[in-house]
Amino acid sequence: MPVGRDGWFEAARPIRVEGGIKARSKRGSIGERWWSRRFIDILEHVCDAGRLTRGRAYARRGQVLDLDLGPGLVKARVQGSRPDPYDVSVRIMAYGADEWAGLVEALAAQALHRAKLLAGEMPPEIEEVFSGCGLPLFPGERGLDMACSCPDWGFPCKHLSAVLYLLAEAFDDDPFLVLAWRGMGREALLDALRATGGGRTPGEPGGGGMPGLLDVADVPFAERTGDFYESGGSPARLGPPADPGSPPDLLLRALDPPPVKARHIPLLDLLRPAYRTLAAQENEESRENEGAE
């Protein structure tokens, strides 16, 4: 049989698929957020460029039939030129309970990281936190164990490449899938972070034995007449200031919602518009001051 561009048989057009998973990106690179681009950069560094290009074409044509992600394993089926779809698997090391306990403690120790995660954001510094614990967030050159049932000897084949690119787009939609692949899903991680503090006192149920961000020692007023109106918390505990891109209601998202409602509306839903209005006014005043200078 003649050898084709793929190195194993004469190239043939894949069987057209109805209802497959199509990449949103129609041209250029795939992956928009920093975490998905980090994943793609690793792939493009270690994988065959030609097969990655054909994999992008497969992903954009919708040749991937399904995609399932679990701890340490991604499984998919990809329709090629043969009648039966190929089975694809991509494995990485999923961390265990003890390793995740250390990661949660390290993340919770950084107030801004904790707040951003609780707000549904993925801070770029999280990669350094993982590295500091001796546990990489993203798989390195030897951290991916990939397999496809097709006879192509390339690494990776175009079927695997298509799955990897669609996986990157899934990371765009939900950064917590990166962490779920490492062994801890979104809700489990957020529950663990909430249990580390966020206003609870040490030893309080759900407090995790760690001081909360807003925990302040209770001192009688008679002993605080000189400094009663000063901040009771150390500025060092607050960590670096929030970056300008942080949402104005970031603190409300990070703290546990109080069981208070006004006319059946949760208190946080009433406070969020006020926080956003105050932030907008502050930004406007800053622009006016800069113009005056």
Automatic annotation (TrEMBL):
Residues 138-168 form the SWIM-type domain. The keyword Metal-binding applies. It comes from the Bacteria. It holds the Pfam family SWIM. Keywords: Metal-binding, Zinc, Zinc-finger. Coiled coil: none annotated. Residues 229-255 are annotated as: Disordered. PANTHER family: SLR1429 PROTEIN. This is SWIM-type domain-containing protein. It comes from Microbispora siamensis.
